[in-house]
Amino acid sequence: FEKSPFFEKKIIQKGQLLFDEWSYDGNLYIIKKWLLSVEKYTTGDKIDTKQLAILKTGEFLWEASLAKDIWKKEALIKALETSEVLQIDAGKDMKKFIEENPSVWYDLLKHIIVETNERLWEANKLITSHYEIEKAINSMKEINAKNIFLLIDKIKDIVDADYILYFEKHQIMESFLTLKYDSRYPNKMQDKIFERSGYFLN
Questions:
Q1: Best exposed site among 9, 24, 39, 96 by fewest CB in 10 Å?
Q2: How far from 156 is each of 76, 105, 117, CA to CA, in Å?
Q3: In Å, how far are 8, 15, 20, 103 from 72, measured between CA atoms?
Q4: Contact at 8 Å (CB) between 110 and 117?
């Protein structure tokens, strides 16, 4: 894609938007490097957002640009770290790219179909999990450490995770976290302090 004259490379600095919610453009984007956050505004003043997903190297976004009409975007995309994307104007250049690179296009189309189905499956799983978790929370008779740990273990089973770590943020120093519970050691309270550097915890 980088070698193709139809694709343009774009660098987005940490915290910068690739595009904003409700904006228009006809580009299909492929992430060449690092992390992008998919977010939606929760208020009308465009201040608070809710993170919907994190997209990483090799993933694509705004495949809706392959449709005939240009739609308003229903989420914003923000760089969590300095990131690189490759973009192509789907309406203007995609047809030419397909004519010149039919086998590459076929591989890209397969990838888009498989990933889109995977995203739909994940969304359906999330809806079901949300219902089960809400049911488990509502069935709690008392809020205490023991019941919270039991709830975490229940959530682990619902979302089919290998394990869940429960951290509390330090009230003053935001980069410090205290591990309070590790579901690999059931019913055992933890009290380990970690410092987080960057977006992920090592």
A1: 24
A2: 30, 39, 24
A3: 22, 22, 10, 30
A4: no
Q: Model's pTM, two decimal places?
A: 0.69
Q: Cα(154)–Cα(134) distance, rounded to whole angstroms?
A: 11
Report the Cα 65 to chain-centroid distance in Å: 20
Query: Exposure of 103 by Cβ count < 10 A (0-12 exposed, 13-18 middle, 19+ buried)?
Result: exposed
Output the six-digit token pair for 69.
């009409």
DSSP state of 197: -
**How far apart, in whole angstroms, are the C-alpha atoms of residue 33 and residue 10?**
11
Find out whether 49 and 39 touch, Cβ atoms under 8 Å: yes
156 closest CA partner among 138, 100, 148: 148
SS3 105: helix
Q: pLDDT tens-digit profile of 50-76?
A: 998 899 998 999 888 887 666 788 899
Distance from C-alpha of 194 to C-alpha of 202, rounded to nearest angstrom: 9
Surface-to-core class of residue 85, CB atoms within 10 Å of its CB (0-12 exposed, 13-18 middle, 19+ buried): buried
CA torsion 29-32-35-37 (nearest 10°) is: 0
The answer to whether 170 and 176 are in contact (CB under 8 A) is yes
Q: Which two tokens stand for residue 95?
A: 């047809």
What Cα–Cα distance (Å) separates residue 11 from each residue in 5, 46, 198?
17, 24, 19
